[in-house]
């Protein structure tokens, strides 16, 4: 394998990844390199070279990016907490969207058992962790929400399927060990392809008609 490596190509890939503010797909990297360059081999070698360094080359949502080595994450903990301090309501809403996507505001409220303030969704949209996917084919055509590549990047997930499962959540103490046998953790789908019951958003459409109503304090929805 080492004989097939192109030292100059390796430097090019390293430079592209280092300079990019966002993760890059192998196809995006290949488009900027000389024709015939084996990007897969170069990425694998670069990942190997950085495995023991302070930053690692890691896959993020099917793309590649340099990230702080996991054992050094504590060095950035204070900055991360100050930058992304979310309310309990926002965290609960984010978790519901992550696991139940595509999901509407009404469905979020049904799961939480309380009304969801529009400001909560606005905060999550501003962080870049959730997005408006489309509109449900039901009366009122409510907006459906899902997570973004930025969500995967921030939480260090290669794919949405890497979210903690039932046993992991129980092991972390986030679920009661005596939960009903019928309880299950849903399988989220963050695919760009709309579900059969979703219509695409219209050009320039930013808000759900329902979300334009006056905001209020969160109250029990039942």
From TrEMBL:
- Classification via Pfam families: SMC_ScpB
What keywords appear on the UniProt entry? Cell cycle, Cell division, Chromosome partition, Cytoplasm
For bias type Acidic residues, the affected ranges are 189-204
**UniProt key word Cytoplasm:** yes
Q: Which Gene3D superfamilies match?
A: Winged helix-like DNA-binding domain superfamily/Winged helix DNA-binding domain
The name under which this protein is listed is SMC-Scp complex subunit ScpB
Q: Give the coiled coil ranges.
A: none
Q: Where is this region: Disordered?
A: 185-204
């Amino acid at each position: 394998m080492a004989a097939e490596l192109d030292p100059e190509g390796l430097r090019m890939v390293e430079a592209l990844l280092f300079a990019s503010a966002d993760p890059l797909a192998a196809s995006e990297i290949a488009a900027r390199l000389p024709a015939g360059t084996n990007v897969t081999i170069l990425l694998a070698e670069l990942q190997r070279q950085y495995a023991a360094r302070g930053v690692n080359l890691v896959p993020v949502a099917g793309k590649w990016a340099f990230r702080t080595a996991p054992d050094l994450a504590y060095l950035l903990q204070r900055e991360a907490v100050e930058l992304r301090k979310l309310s309990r309501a926002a965290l609960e809403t984010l978790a519901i969207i992550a696991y139940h996507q595509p999901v509407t505001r009404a469905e979020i409220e049904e799961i939480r058992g309380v009304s969801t303030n529009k400001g909560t969704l606005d905060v999550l949209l501003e962080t870049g962790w959730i997005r408006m996917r489309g509109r449900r084919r039901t009366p009122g055509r409510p907006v459906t929400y899902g997570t973004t590549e930025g969500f995967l990047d921030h939480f260090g997930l290669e794919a949405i399927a890497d979210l903690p499962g039932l046993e992991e959540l129980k092991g972390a103490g986030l679920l009661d060990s005596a939960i009903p046998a019928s309880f299950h953790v849903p399988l989220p789908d963050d695919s760009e392809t709309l579900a059969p019951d979703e219509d695409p958003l219209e050009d320039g459409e930013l808000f759900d008609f329902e979300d334009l109503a006056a905001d209020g304090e969160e109250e029990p929805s039942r």
